[in-house]
Specification:
The complex is a heterodimer of chains A (308) and B (313). Helix content of chain A is 39%, strand content 19%. Chain A has 308 residues and is an alpha/beta fold. Chain A has a single domain, classed as Inosine-uridine Nucleoside N-ribohydrolase, Chain A. The two termini of chain B are 25 Å apart. The chains are: A alpha/beta (308), B alpha/beta (313). Chains A and B meet through loops of A and loops of B.
Chain lengths: 308, 313
Amino acid sequence: MNKIPIILDCDTGVDDAIAIMLANQIPQFDLRAITTVAGNVELEKTTSNSLRVLELINADIPVYAGAAAPLYRDQVTAGYIHGENGLGGIDLPLHRTAVPNITAWDAIHAEAVKYAGALELIAVGPLTNLGLAFLKYREMPRLIQRIVIMGGSATMGNVTPAAEFNIFADPEAADIVFTSGVPVYMCGLEATLKAYYNHDEIKRVGTLNSKPARFFHDVTQDILSFYHEFGMPGVCLHDPMTVLYAADDSIFETHHVNIRVETKGKLTQGKTVTDLYSDKKLEPNAYIVTNVDREAFQNKVYELMSGY
Amino acid sequence: MEKIPIILDGDPGHDDAIAWVLANASSMLEIRACTSVCGNQTIQKTTYNALRVMALIGLDVPLAMGRVKPLLGQPIVAPSVHGQTGLDGPQLPEPVVEPLAMSAVELMAQVLEKSKEKVTLIPTGPLTNIGALLLLYPQLKPKIAQISLMGGGLAFGNWTPAAEFNILVDPEAADIVFRSGLPITMSGLDVTQKALVFPEDFERIRALQNPVATVVAEWLDFFYSFHRTKGYAGAPVHDAVAVTALVKPEILTMVKFHVQIETTGDYCRGMTVADRFGVLGQPANVTAVMDIDRKAFINLLVDAAAYYGEEKK
């Protein structure tokens, strides 16, 4: 089997941590690198958290640190959701370091050149690193097969009424990515809010006899209470869903649409403006994932975690 | 039962016209005045259409003409949806009255001042007149019972991907209305795109064979000709939902939200931004209509059209 060369760009983060564990188990992926970006928590933490998770699952994958702040906005983080350390207060050992002196965007470019157009990017945090890669390397658009992101929404927001966190955190970078010419597959809130894991399902994974499975259980405990407070039935696995989508889209509903990023509106900065439900249709430039077969998703996650 | 005094403010427009047919047929409403606004077509055309609709349905109340353009910026018209006249399709009777010399805002103020009871406003076009009313006569706010409007969409737009036509045409007026603190019932695209009248329903109305029903059926024929090209299974009679919210609220599902109007942005001007998860911690300012019992809605429209046959007997 020809494996797909993948770079996972993340702001680790509870659900990013799970996304890394799953990506490492997906047989069709050749996970080339993890690149990190500031987002859910500060860059120092997203980098060390990524290293800790890779150490936990004993995966020999390089980590490249990326942007510590958005392209030109003030930083926003979500420590109140992911915990002060970004991993719900769980303390994982750390004996590794990121690759020194190579930035995330340089690493993305180097791998893209190496795979001559076959590389796929999965970005589950703010899109700053990808934006910088496009700003620096002119040939970038034809070197990337596609970009699968967790971010945005056609119909709602979460961090603001109109905007989802990852896009809101760096709308200018998102705009660069959506206008890059590379096909963008957007896993937005319509789908990811359905990709939840409830208390019993988390417990079921927790009883699998492995350190990663126990970590899956422990790291989701605080965030589960957060989601319950919002009346949600479980923890939304936004980033893991995005990784699974990149591997196999058969349990998802996808539409070819036009998506533009609002960077200026007073109330709507960071909204992914989508023509899917509007009478006004524009030239399609992206794909939006609007639905997931939750049962199948839930089982797939369990199955992959059983691999540890 | 006491009738609810109302002012109809619209830019007829096929769905405005059907909304007025519905309002005039209801024994629950007492129409005190009509005002026109520029929207679906220029103010001259929407005013002429309003007068023709009033002649058709025998609505004998004062009408005053709105401003020639939105509060700020230039008009946007919708000939692709409503035709060059703004109400293309069947032949209509000529107006039997002239518009008043006073402006729409002055007429609204006069009705509110004179009324012993609070008056409900039903705007089914851009909110220019209501915005101007609130700017000019803030002291009359206590005389307004509520504003039941057609406009916006919490999840999506129609004229642009983010904005619905009525709000897009005059976002500043909408902003004034939504920040007014007055009770607002918003029938936006979330519900009005489900308020579909299917071709088989047109035939039920046509079969009534009274002059108003015949015209309504032909309006629906015309209105659907545009929507069919957009993939609709029927004609979304948006504006009639704003009247339904008063005469038959039990067939609607309503949810309260905090809603703000985006007046800026590259792509989002005119968007109704709803705080669905309550992240702003602001109290709700809007009762949003989110769903409709479609069959009951059709029955309501058929009964309204039938009313004009009974009257003649």
